[in-house]
User: Fold this.
Amino acid sequence: QLQLAESGGGLVQPGGSLRLSCAASGSIVAINAMGWYRQAPGKQRELVAVIHSGGNTNYVDSVKGRFTISRDDAKNTVYLQMNSLKPEDTAVYYCNAAVITRATSIYLVEVWGQGTLVTVSS
Assistant:
């Protein structure tokens, strides 16, 4: 069974930093894009950052220059380094991955993590 396990959320003061991690497990042949979404109370879930299998990255404008997404393919893990955090970054952060898995054939499956809460407050 494919799973994504997130860690690293918590409470941080404005201007502080946090690093989120997300490790994929299960029957994995390869992982295409990996990304981080977030959902603040009363708002829709939004894509924060994505990293493609070739290493290209994309960010939502509000986090450019402050957040950095990276991946370690040997560990099937994606990271989100968040610096200069602002109160408006407060949200539940979800990991997402497009995973190629093998059963009777090969399949491309979208997998979500359970979410980790990031709270930016003084």
In short: The chain has a mean pLDDT of 96. The two ends are 40 Å apart (CA to CA).
